[in-house]
């Protein structure tokens, strides 16, 4: 299956309206009053039309957009992206909400948090990132009373065909392509073992279980060992502190067991910081996070303050990279240059706004890419429609995307992942 390469243009796209007016060149003469009046009416018509268009445009933007994310403690990047979109268009136009940290045990609260946004008569689009369990049911309830609201899921935790039946649009990270590409990148960096860290809840998700199967097959192709380790689920009674303490305690054991030429990957955001912290101290590689970002785990693991760089991902990446190099991690730690979670929250909301205004089609992957590009200028993206591995049916409202991998060093470099053709066989592995 050939993937479509999408190059994101630097900066936002600005629409410029040009008004042209013409006149006589000296050779023509108005011969009578009737002709003169007709000409005057024609000249005044564009001005009247422009005024009507301006009024119509102002009226067309009289709508609200809602964004639901996890909390800062569970998914900070997702929340910051929502805040960036709200800052751009105003609190009066953009409503933010947070689902519970323990969303698996508080599913009805999660559902109600999402549904409550539809009580606003001006609400025209609701974006949920990450679309945790309960999002499908919430979208179904919203559609029963407000079919006019566009429901968009970012990074769904529910089976993609299921949430795709309720959502108008679903966009997830490309677990198929990335399952192959992360292994390929680890091999290119000299790793001989890939260690996957997760827990049963995540492994019950189609996206994550299929990715594991793809990773195993890719390790065979590149002559690497694939190992799996289990860590506590932060949404259970142990919470985030207990889950992070487990990682801190066990990474030294894993390094002793698998060696310093091993690459590590965890499926949970909360596990990322302690994993990075110990890998920086003891050795090992980290290709990229489950939902990659220079803010995902790195600031805490490195002990750096990014307050002054907030919102500027070029400066954020430069500061993180310098700290990684200082700790001896050059050539061993990677990320995406722009936060995935941040871009999804803000980019999907931007796309929804464009659709509401009539300037974009909802299921146009290039339009989605352009909206993402507003918040990730210069980044390279690749993606395709989701294909159901059981039926072979390609969905027209579910998309999988990924950004090129950046390995930090002195200097750092992109791996060119978005230019790699993923072998066809990986799209049918399950």
Q: How would you describe the overall organization of this protein?
A:
This protein is an alpha/beta fold. Helix content is 43%, strand content 18%. The chain is built from 14 helices and 14 strands. An 8-stranded mixed β-sheet has the order 1-11-12-6-5-4-2-3, with helices on both faces. A 3-stranded parallel β-sheet has the order 8-7-9. It has a 3-stranded antiparallel β-sheet with strand order 10-13-14. Helix 13 (340-357) packs across helix 14. The chain is globular. The model is unreliable at 1-48 and 50-59 (pLDDT under 50).
Summarize it:
This protein is α/β, with parallel strands linked by helices and 430 residues long. It has helices at residues 33-60, 72-89, 107-116, 135-145, 160-164, 175-188, 200-203, 206-221, 239-258, 269-282, 298-302, 313-326, 340-357, 365-373; strands at residues 4-7, 64-69, 94-98, 123-131, 150-156, 169-173, 193-198, 225-230, 262-266, 333-335, 380-387, 394-403, 406-408, 413-414. The strands form 3 sheets. It has an 8-stranded mixed beta sheet, sandwiched between helices.
Could you name the key traits of this structure?
single chain; alpha/beta; eight-stranded mixed β-sheet; three-stranded parallel β-sheet; globular; disordered N terminus
């Amino acid at each position: 299956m050939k993937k479509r390469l999408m190059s994101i243009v630097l900066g936002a796209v600005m629409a410029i309206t040009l008004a042209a007016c013409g006149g006589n060149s000296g050779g023509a003469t108005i011969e009578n009053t009737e002709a003169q009046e007709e000409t005057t009416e024609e000249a005044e018509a564009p001005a009247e039309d422009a005024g009507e268009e301006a009024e119509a445009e102002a009226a067309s933007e009289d709508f609200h957009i809602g964004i639901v994310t996890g909390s800062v403690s569970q998914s900070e990047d997702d929340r910051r992206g929502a805040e960036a979109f709200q800052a751009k268009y105003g609190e009066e136009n953009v409503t933010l909400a947070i689902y519970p940290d323990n969303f698996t045990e508080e599913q009805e609260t999660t559902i109600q948090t999402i549904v409550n946004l539809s009580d606003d008569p001006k609400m025209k689009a609701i974006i949920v990132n990450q679309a945790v369990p309960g999002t499908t049911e919430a979208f179904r309830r919203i559609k029963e009373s407000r079919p006019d609201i566009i429901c968009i899921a970012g990074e769904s935790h529910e089976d993609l065909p299921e949430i795709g039946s309720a959502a108008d649009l679903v966009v997830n990270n490309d677990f198929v392509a990335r399952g192959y590409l992360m292994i390929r990148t680890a091999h290119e960096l000299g790793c001989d073992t890939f260690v996957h860290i997760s827990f049963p809840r995540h492994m019950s998700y189609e996206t994550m279980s299929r990715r594991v199967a793809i990773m195993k097959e890719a390790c065979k192709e590149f002559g690497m060992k694939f190992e799996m380790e289990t860590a506590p689920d932060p949404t259970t009674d142990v919470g985030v502190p207990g889950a992070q303490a487990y990682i801190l305690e066990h990474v030294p054991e894993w390094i002793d067991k698998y060696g310093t030429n091993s690459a590590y990957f965890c499926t949970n955001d909360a596990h990322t910081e302690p994993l990075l912290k110990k890998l920086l101290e003891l050795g090992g590689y980290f290709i990229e996070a489950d939902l990659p970002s220079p803010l995902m785990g790195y600031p805490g693991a490195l002990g750096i303050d990014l307050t002054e760089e907030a919102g500027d991902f070029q400066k954020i990446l430069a500061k993180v990279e310098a700290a990684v190099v200082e700790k001896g991690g050059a050539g061993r730690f990677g990320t995406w240059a722009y936060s995935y979670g941040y871009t999804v929250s803000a980019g999907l909301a931007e796309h929804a706004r464009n659709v509401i205004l009539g300037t974009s089609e909802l299921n146009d992957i290039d339009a989605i890419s352009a909206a993402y590009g507003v918040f990730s200028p210069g980044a390279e993206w690749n993606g395709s429609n989701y294909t159901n591995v059981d039926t072979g049916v390609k969905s027209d409202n579910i998309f999988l995307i990924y950004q090129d991998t950046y390995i930090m060093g002195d200097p750092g470099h992109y791996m060119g992942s978005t230019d790699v053709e993923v072998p066809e066989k990986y799209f049918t592995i399950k």
